[in-house]
């Protein structure tokens, strides 16, 4: 009888020790633990587009076109943003303009400051790093891998492609007057100043 009691006590002690050794957590807590420390480029991009673009410093588009045509190398080095040793310089520009032509992949604008100056708003092929690098939303030195850093550009371009551009294309008509702010990329080795395209961040119609 004593042996039976000892056996029962032994089994209970083993069971209790095993119970205390097991850690139970909810599925939500487990997922949060797994995701802790994972960079969320989409959230960063959404926050930027929702709350940072209005106050983002920008160069007047007319002044930008005049100065960059005068001496592209000096102007880009003094005013542009670039990553590493790249020849691509990025800018945030803004202006008031009138819609001249609605093209398949762009909207051609005449700048109100100077009717001789034209610039295009891109409505297709939204890609590249112009928004990320021109806005200095992030520093590559803060990232352990380039995949996270590059994902910022992907998410920013997705928002422009899926929200800004569709609203613009739905509403825009020739002769509309509007305000725009956006990102521009210029390559100093192979410049094409006649076809500069603005990736739109903000479009406001004046009607």
Total strands: 6
Overall, the morphology is globular
Main sheet properties? 5 strands, mixed, barrel
| Average pLDDT, all residues | 85
Compressed to H and E, one letter per element, the order equals HHHEHHEEEHHEE
Fraction of residues in H or I helices:
40-55%
Runs in which pLDDT lies below 50 for 5 or more consecutive residues are: 9-35
* Beta fraction: 15-25%
Folded structure, characterized:
The protein has 207 residues and is α/β, with parallel strands linked by helices. The chain has 7 helices and 6 strands, in the order αααβααβββααββ. Helices cover 43% and strands 23% of the residues. A 5-stranded mixed β-barrel has the order 2-3-4-6-5. β2 and β3 (106-111) form a beta hairpin. It starts with a helix and ends with a strand.
Summarize the SSE layout with pairings:
Blueprint: H1 2-21, H2 27-35, H3 41-51, E1 59-60, H4 61-70, H5 72-79, E2 88-102, E3 106-111, E4 118-122, H6 130-135, H7 146-171, E5 177-187, E6 197-205
Parallel strand pairs: 1-2, 4-6
Antiparallel strand pairs: 2-3, 2-5, 3-4, 5-6
Sum up the structure in keywords.
five-stranded mixed β-barrel; single chain; 207 residues; 6 strands; alpha/beta
């Amino acid at each position: 009888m004593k042996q039976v009691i000892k056996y029962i006590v032994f089994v209970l002690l083993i069971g209790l020790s095993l119970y205390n050794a097991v850690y139970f957590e909810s599925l939500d807590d487990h997922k949060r633990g797994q995701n802790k420390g994972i960079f969320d480029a989409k959230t960063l991009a959404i926050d930027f587009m929702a709350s940072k673009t209005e106050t983002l410093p920008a160069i007047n588009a007319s002044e930008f076109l005049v100065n960059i045509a005068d001496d592209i190398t000096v102007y880009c080095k003094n005013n542009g943003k670039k990553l590493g040793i790249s020849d691509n310089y990025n800018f945030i520009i803004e202006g008031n303009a009138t819609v001249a032509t609605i093209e398949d992949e762009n909207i051609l604008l005449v700048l109100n400051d100077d009717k001789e100056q034209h610039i295009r708003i891109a409505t297709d092929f939204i890609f590249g790093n112009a928004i990320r690098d021109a806005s200095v939303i992030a520093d590559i030195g803060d990232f352990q891998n380039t995949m996270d850093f590059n994902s910022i550009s992907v998410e920013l371009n997705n928002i422009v492609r899926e929200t800004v551009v569709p609203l613009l294309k739905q509403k825009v008509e020739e002769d509309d007057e509007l305000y725009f702010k956006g990102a521009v990329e210029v390559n100093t080795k192979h410049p094409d100043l006649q076809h500069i395209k603005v990736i739109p961040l903000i479009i406001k119609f004046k009607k």
